Amino acid sequence: MATENKNLSVYDKNKIPNAKDLRFGIVVSEWNDEITEALYQGAEEALLDCGALPENLIRWNVPGSFELTFGCKKMIQTEKVDAIVAIGSVIRGETSHFDFVCSATAQGIKDLNVAYDVPVIFCVLTDDTIDQSRARSGGKHGNKGTEAGIVAIQMAVLGK
């Protein structure tokens, strides 16, 4: 397991560029909102901690992870942002729906990164259980949202 011995929330602020002059979009899936709200909190706190201004954080909600691609695309087209964090949570169920949603969401976000000059950060948990999701959204493995916020800063600066 990639996160077994890693806390996703640990970063060295001295190695992260200051985000004060950057604008960030955060598109959040409403499905599994216990998890996505915790991921959002982690991303928002990391961005603010690294100098982003509250007025430069734009949040949009979409119904589920599958809809993240469209939400991010519309944000790229209508808002002037330097990077977007796409936040979602897909938890395996009893059918193959999990596989289709995870694959389509990952491919869609990849396609946005190829098609546009605005980096879209993949912050979608694809876990087998709710306990695994909780461990990665503020639990024993830290918060993947925090990691995504830091990656958004790094990629926004790279894109300048």
UniProtKB/TrEMBL annotation:
Family matches, as InterPro entries: LS, LS/RS, LS/RS_sf
Recorded metabolic or biological pathway in which this protein acts? Cofactor biosynthesis; riboflavin biosynthesis; riboflavin from 2-hydroxy-3-oxobutyl phosphate and 5-amino-6-(D-ribitylamino)uracil: step 1/2
> Which key words tag this protein in UniProt?
Riboflavin biosynthesis, Transferase
Q: What would you give as a GO molecular function for this chain, any one? A: 6,7-dimethyl-8-ribityllumazine synthase activity
A Pfam family hit: DMRL_synthase
Q: Which residues form the active site?
A: H97 (proton donor)
Its UniProt entry gives the catalysed reaction(s) as: (2S)-2-hydroxy-3-oxobutyl phosphate + 5-amino-6-(D-ribitylamino)uracil = 6,7-dimethyl-8-(1-D-ribityl)lumazine + phosphate + 2 H2O + H(+)
What Gene3D superfamilies does the annotation carry? Lumazine/riboflavin synthase
Where is 5-amino-6-(D-ribitylamino)uracil annotated to bind? W31, S65, F66, E67, S89, V90, I91, F122
Residues binding (2S)-2-hydroxy-3-oxobutyl phosphate, per UniProt: E94, T95, R136
Quote the EC number: 2.5.1.78
Note the PANTHER family from the entry: 6,7-DIMETHYL-8-RIBITYLLUMAZINE SYNTHASE, 6,7-DIMETHYL-8-RIBITYLLUMAZINE SYNTHASE DMRL SYNTHASE LUMAZINE SYNTHASE
Q: What does this protein do?
A: Catalyzes the formation of 6,7-dimethyl-8-ribityllumazine by condensation of 5-amino-6-(D-ribitylamino)uracil with 3,4-dihydroxy-2-butanone 4-phosphate. This is the penultimate step in the biosynthesis of riboflavin.
Family under the similarity heading = Belongs to the DMRL synthase family.
Provide the protein name. 6,7-dimethyl-8-ribityllumazine synthase
> Which species is the source of this protein?
Flagellimonas yonaguniensis
* Gene from which this protein is expressed: ribH
